[in-house]
Each structure stands twice: as structure tokens, then as C-alpha cells.
Amino acid sequence: MKVWVPETIPAKLLADLPKGVSWDYLPRRGPLPPGREEVVFLVPNYGLRQRLAEVLPALPRLEVVQTLSAGVDWIVDLIPPGVVLADARGVHDVSVAEWVISAMLALAKETPRFTKAQQEERWIRWGEVALDELASKTVLIVGYGSIGRALEARLRPFGVRILRLARRARAGVFGVRSLLELLPEADVVVLLLPLTPETRGIVDERFLSRMRPGAWLINAGRGALVDTEALVAALKREHIRAALDVTDPEPLPAGHPLWCAPGLLLTPHVAGATSRFLPRAVALLRAQIRRFLEGRPLWNVVKEGY
């Protein structure tokens, strides 16, 4: 069986794929590698929709597309009928959960302000800045899946109160209909939702106005979950503060108002980009290929855009 993988995966990590599996790199652009008629399993480069649209029709035996991203909004509508799409749920749990906590702590301890002062060689006197604590805060996790569970486990030692919200209500987890009701209770709102037609722009002016004054919005999901214009307005009037690892548009163009919005911590979609990412991703790929060869159900099969 032939597998095509992104060029970002080192060959040494692919050395112990199951017996009988051959692999080749799918370049980001240019001619396709030989053997396209034999490709059964495809691991696409993240975000390259145009390349994927070119490649998919050229693979007559394709049966599985396995992403290395937790979200599949960038690819789900391109998958041909009969081809299984699986995501990388679980691969990013630790890294994204840690990024969220680091963002919370950076806001609480005024890290952006002190970093700026350091660059200006300016000593901030005691009492000029009031620091905050996570202890006793209420954290609303919007999109309570595997990353949400990982986040909760790491937040517990800080002594926070957790509110969980998912698409469907279940024991201990609120359904999406409770969102606007819960927002005023939260000191911190964490977005971990996938991007779907239902979630696009869910953080709009009404959502932001329901947030508690001074609350923090942490987005580690997708940029388009948030109405950027409404967020910029909320930041400018200092109604909330925010930390974003994802934006809409992405990447941000020069001169975009988010670059200089007050009360905003911004990172360039790197929450999952740790040194442990590729080994975990390849471990999932290896397991999925083995399950496929053995005729067992694949993990993380995408249904209804999730």
C-alpha cells in the first residue's frame, strides 16, 4: 500500500511504518511523485487547499485522507464521496492546553506590558501595574472535547471553577443553547470550537457584550469563530482583554487593527507547533495505517464536519 505524506515529516520518523507500506513525499507544489495510481492513504499539507484540489482527482485508488490537524474546516468540502476523512484529535491536546494556560498567565501577570517596558529600558515601579491571579476565576470552555479535557486537567491545580460547553448537553456539560446565559458568569472564555457553518462568527457583538467587563477571551480554535471587527471594538473600549493564536484573516496583513489593539496578546497560530508534535502525529498515522490494513475502524473519522 502506498502512502503520501507532507515533506515536513522527517524520513526517520517513517522508518517503522507497518510492513508492506511504502511512502513518498507529496511536494507542496510542482509535479506529483510517481505511483499516484497506487496511493490509498493521503496525509495532506495543512491549509494547502488549492494543492489538495489538484491532487485528489489524480488518485483513483484513494480511500483515506488523514489530517495532522485537529480541525478539518480547510479540507472537509474537498473530500470525494467514498473517501474517509480522519482528523488528528488527541495529537494537539497537550500543546494547545499548555498554550491556553500560558496565555492566561501572561494576561494575569501583565507579561506583554513588562516585555514592552524591557524593550524600552523602562523600570515599572511597584503599584503602577496591578497583577491578577487565576485562583478563584471561572473559566468557560467553549468546545469541550479532548483539548478541553486536557485543559481542565491542567487548570485544576490553579483553583479555578470550570464551566464546560459543547454542541450537545450531557452530564456535567452544557449545550450550546446555554452559551449566552453562561457568558456573564465567566472571567475567562476559552474558544476550542471547530470551524463549521454553525460556529463561524459565533463570537459577535452580542456575544462580546454578554461577557463580564474585564473578562478575557482566549481563542485557540479558529480565527473565523470571531467577528474581528466586533472584537477590535470591544478591545478598544476596554470591555475585555484577549489572547489569540488564530485570527481572521490569517496571516494578519500589515496595518491590520489587531496588531495594535489594546489589551491583546497575539501569537501566529503556533499553539500546536511544539517539538513533540511530529512524533505524536506520526504515531497516530502509524496506528491508523495498521488499523486500516487489519480492517478495523479508524479513529477520529470526521462526521458532520467534526
Count of DSSP helices? Answer: 8
The domain tally reads: 2
Number of strands: 12
| Uncertain residue ranges | none
CATH architecture of the largest domain: 3-Layer(aba) Sandwich
Q: Structural class of the helix and strand makeup? A: alpha/beta
Structure description:
There is one protein chain. The protein has helices spanning 49-55, 93-108, 111-119, 146-155, 179-182, 205-210, 228-236, 277-293, and strands spanning 2-6, 22-26, 39-42, 64-66, 84-86, 138-142, 161-166, 174-175, 188-191, 216-219, 241-244, 264-266. By secondary structure, the chain is of the alpha/beta class. It has two domains: 2-91 and 274-293, NAD(P)-binding Rossmann-like Domain (Rossmann fold), CATH 3.40.50.720; 93-266, Rossmann fold. The strands form two sheets. It has a seven-stranded parallel β-sheet with strand order 8-7-6-9-10-11-12, covered by helices on one side. Strands 2-1-3-4-5 form a five-stranded parallel β-sheet, covered by helices on one side. Strand 6, helix 4 and strand 7 form a beta-alpha-beta unit. Helix 2 (93-108) crosses helix 4. It is elongated. The mean pLDDT is 97.
Would you kindly provide a brief summary of this structure?
This protein is of the alpha/beta class. It has eight helices and twelve strands. The chain folds into two domains: about 1-90 and about 275-295, Rossmann fold (3-Layer(aba) Sandwich), CATH 3.40.50.720; about 95-265, Rossmann fold (3-Layer(aba) Sandwich).
